[in-house]
Amino acid sequence: MLKLLRNSCTRCKDVKLFKYKYNTRRTYTTKKDVVSSADVVIIGGGIAGCNTLYQLTKRGVNAVLLERAKITSGTTWHTAGLVWSLRPCDLEVRLLQDSRRIYDSLEKETGDYAGWINNGGIFISRSKVRTEEYMRLHTLGKAMGIPSQVLDPNEAQKLFPLLDPSVFKMALYSPQDGTIDPAMACSALLKAATKNGGKVYEECPILDIHYAHNLLGNKEVTAVHTDKGIIKTKCVVNCGGAWGPRIARFAGIPSLPIIPFKHAYVVCDATPEIRGAPNIRDHDVNLYIKIQGESCHVGGYEGNPHMLDQVPDNLQFHLYDLDWDVFGVHMNSAATLCPKLGTVGVKSTVCGPESFTPDHKPVLGEDPNVFGLYHNCGYNSAGMMFSAGCAVQMAEWIVTGRPSYNMFTFDIRRFTGAQLSRPHWVRECSHESYVRNYNIVFPHDEPLAGRDASHDALHQELVDDGAVMQSRAGWERPGFFVPGEKIRVQQYDWGGTHDYPRNLDQRYENILKGDHTFDFSKHHDLIGKEALACRNAAALFNMSYYGKFYITGPDAQRTAELAFTADLTKKEDRVIYSLLLNDKGGVEADVTVSILNDGSGQLHEPIFKGRAYYVVSSGFSAMHTLAHIRRIIQTHKLRANITDVTKQLCILSVQGPDSQRILQRYTDAGLSNDAFPANTHRSIHISKAPYSPDNKRYTCRALRLGWSGELGWELHVPSSHAIQVYKALSTSEGLKNAGWRALTSLSAEKGYHLWNADVRPDDNPVEANLAFACRKDGEYIGNEQVTKAKINGVSKKYAFFTLEDKVALFGQEGIYRNGEPVGYLRRGDYAYYLDKSIGIGYVSNGGAEVTKNFLKEGDYEIEVMGTKYKATLHLKSPFDPTGQRLLGNYGEQGMDENTHEPHAGQNERAGGSE
Fold it and tell me: Exposed site from 2, 139, 797, 804, fewest CB < 10 Å?
């Protein structure tokens, strides 16, 4: 155990030293009265606010920063300031690169030392599976140009002499890591920002954020009311950190998903031999060690942290008393890893508030409920690391309308209203994100906290039939099925802390452990049976969590022309696959659009005037899609309405070679290619099985399409009738329940795009092989960038890769062409029908154009955890490349549609006697 210095007088002196250090810096505060107007008003003078002001003023924006007390006085001043280079996803690696580049360049730009120390970092692994995770980091880093080095324990000890090599198995050294001094960094950023015309007002608390309702009924920011006057503006950036939710409430936003925690580290007495040594991250014991001069700063993430209801407004340069009963675990861990630290005294403790979010990602972007209100907070104790890179994207967001990177996982629009309206959901999930901060990030792990925020009408029926649920955007959806079991997700038990007893029923947790691997899941064969049932017979998928909404009104058609890339001038019974782009040509969403011209007045076909559109989007990005369309309506002042009916409609999808034969038993509608062509929709009746004494019929909208690549239909059923329709279909022989794990595998095998993985806002449709979804003429948003890409070519190109070796792929693996890194996989899965691992990614050519010849002429390898495997590149998915199965042409299986038993009306183009 480290020696503890608990003398209260000494502690007071240490706090005073901290205050002295952070209050004697050079100030760049504007002494005059506040300006009367500004392009952008930033609220919060921590590292996020300073970085945002710096980036905006670099772009010529008239921006001001308001700080209620002193710069850094909230949570920034006491941060450890670690900056790492490697993270488990490409976005975070890019943001860290940008942060490092900015901190490294500040001294040259301003002439003042900004506090950046490039001393490197070491990741410590104590287990085989942690080593595999680090090898994935190492692999992704190489593919993205981030150097790292795999070390054995003795080699690691040479870099950090205090380490005990017998305690761990391996280490990963990242030479670009370092630390940044928060006060010096903020000072340098403000010096540069004020030089560029920015203004900084300290001791200037805000009293309110004014907003007004425009002609379309939407809220717009109009001004910020401070105790020194009113500043007119149309754009406010909330950089309030732990106080971010309070700032949001000024603008009428009732909740922001941020919870403050007490987070701590201790400063040890001098240990001369560690001067210049790299920082340490020992994830297996939730420990980090920061090097500052000859002193170690020891901290980590506990399993029983102190949550705060709120942080007082008047808290400035404040530290809490450290709870050694909570923090002591880190002292023991540090002494175990570095025995000498067990004999070193502690000269000060630092315990202050830090903000955490439900999914351990920051909260960025424009609020979907108030135009002009942007958030930039909730950094989960990683503000120094990410805020500089995020500020670049925030500036792009504000100036150009959208960021350059794919920021969806940080975007406030990733949360649904149902999630944000439940305070217990925010608290539970934020607690879990804190305690699991250093947990291994498995590709198919699921959270235990905040479950059941939203579920569809079929939830209980599916659980009774063996569904093992996943959580996406707060929705519960079936991941896969364990026949004969009823595995319910339990209420969050807080890991047995905070006086909560552990759940007695831990079957769900044990099921999840089957996916705690970087190899094939223990459920691999079970998922494969579901996928092959769809390929060889028929499968029933519950897709009810998909976003579903209508676009109606006088300007509905104009809205569609601007928002959707596809040609929507076709007949009213068509279902069109379309993209939504931003002004930069990036793909903001992909959806299916059903063209409507009338309705019967029911939920699945409401009555409206003129042409309308029924839009279905991915469930986890539904809020993002809605917000994007609303922004288009707002910008162009269109008279169009969006009605969200996600909760009111369920989707049951019957897919596979036998889907027509099975579904035909429950409807009198014709289902042949003539009667019900592919990519069309219509209202049909679904009844119980033939000869049932209860011959009640239910109406629904049937769409002939599917995400599996097989013949199939989606049934969009009013939630009130969904259970009856599900029970009827469930009695059908040869129809197997299947979950999303099988469905995503099938989609990858077929070559369908998964938004936010295969195609994202930083991808152009031409790069993604989606130019076919973009009409040649028209004024849709992003059209110019698509046309330019078609003419000039692109510098990266979407491609498929299959491996002959049975190796698990999950995404983020390196792609090598002729021995050189040319990209990384966006998504990996197992193609059960092809019986191969399949990966999807983009191949680049060092900034030069990527042509078909360039793609075809290379020899490819995929690097998985440091080992390269020979790969075959495909320009199109090798599964059914001509799409014959979608038409029901299964000649090679003897299951062509014409061999099915005839049904009344089957061959009638009108669709039978509906």
Answer: 804
Residue 894: pLDDT band (50, 70, 90) is very low
Residue 66, SS3? strand
pLDDT of residue 632 exceeding 70: yes
pLDDT tens column, 440-482: 999 999 999 999 889 999 999 999 999 999 999 999 999 999 9
- Contact predicate 175/120, CB 8 Å: yes
Residues in the chain: 914
DSSP-assigned letter for residue 772: G
Q: Are 288 and 124 within 8 A, CB to CB?
A: no
pLDDT band at 298 (very low <50, low <70, confident <90, very high): very high
**Contact (Cβ atoms closer than 8 angstroms) between residue 364 and residue 412:** yes
Cα torsion 155, 158, 159, 165: sign: positive
Is this prediction's pTM over 0.90? Answer: yes
Least confident of 439-443, 522-526, 865-869, 901-905: 901-905
Pairwise CA distance, residues 912 & 489, whole Å:
44
Residue-level pLDDT at 8: 36
How far is residue 668's CA from residue 699's CA, in Å, rounded to a whole number? 12
Is 312 buried (19+), middle (13-18) or exposed (0-12) by CB count in 10 A?
exposed
The CA distances from residue 215 to 145, 212, 400, 629, 722, in Å, are 50, 10, 24, 17, 39
SS3 label, residue 693: coil
Contact call for residues 258 and 377 (beta carbons, < 8 A): yes
Residue with tokens 């009746």: 685
Backbone angles phi, psi at 686, to 5 degrees: -115, 130
Report the alpha-carbon distance of residue 19 to residue 394 in Å, rounded.
Answer: 30
Q: Is pLDDT of 5 > 60?
A: no
Q: Which pLDDT score, from 0 to 100, does residue 689 have?
A: 58
CA distance 368 to 374: 9
Residues in Cβ contact with 569 at an 8 Å cutoff, skipping those fewer than 6 apart: none
pLDDT at 195: 97
Please say whether the beta carbons of 823 and 871 come within 8 A.
no
On whether the CB atoms of residues 257 and 378 are closer than 8 A, the answer is: yes
* CB-based contacts of 13, cutoff 8 Å, min separation 6: none
Contact 223, 334 (CB under 8 A): no
- The Cα 39–Cα 121 span in angstroms is 40
How many CB atoms are closer than 10 A to CB 421? 12
Instruction: List the single range of 59-68, 197-206, 607-616, 788-797 with lowest mean pLDDT.
Output: 607-616
Spell out the long-range contacts of 572-579 with Cβ–Cβ below 8 A and sequence spacing 24 or more. 572/596, 572/597, 572/598, 572/611, 573/680, 573/681, 573/682, 574/679, 574/680, 574/681, 575/679, 575/680, 575/681, 575/703, 575/704, 575/705, 576/679, 577/679, 577/773, 578/773, 579/765, 579/770, 579/773, 579/774
How far is CA 146 from each of CA 94, 149, 176, rounded to the nearest angstrom?
10, 10, 8
The whole-angstrom separation of Cα 711 and Cα 506 is 39
Share of the chain above pLDDT 70, in %: 93
Report how far residue 410's alpha carbon sits from residue 221's, in angstroms, rounded to the nearest whole number. 22
- For the chain, the C-alpha Rg in angstroms (whole number) is 29
Instruction: Return the pLDDT at 783.
Output: 97
Quote the CA–CA distance of 823 and 818 in Å, as a whole number.
Answer: 13
- Mean pLDDT within 424-442: 96
Q: How many whole angstroms separate alpha carbon 144 and alpha carbon 174?
A: 13
According to DSSP, the residues that pair with 480 across neighbouring strands are: 468
Give the Cα-Cα-Cα angle 288, 294, 300 (nearest 5 degrees). Answer: 15
Reported as a single tens digit per residue, the pLDDT across 786-837 is: 999 999 999 999 999 999 999 999 999 999 999 999 999 999 999 999 999 9
Encoded amino acid at 278, one letter: P
- Bridging pattern class, strands 40-43 and 63-66: parallel
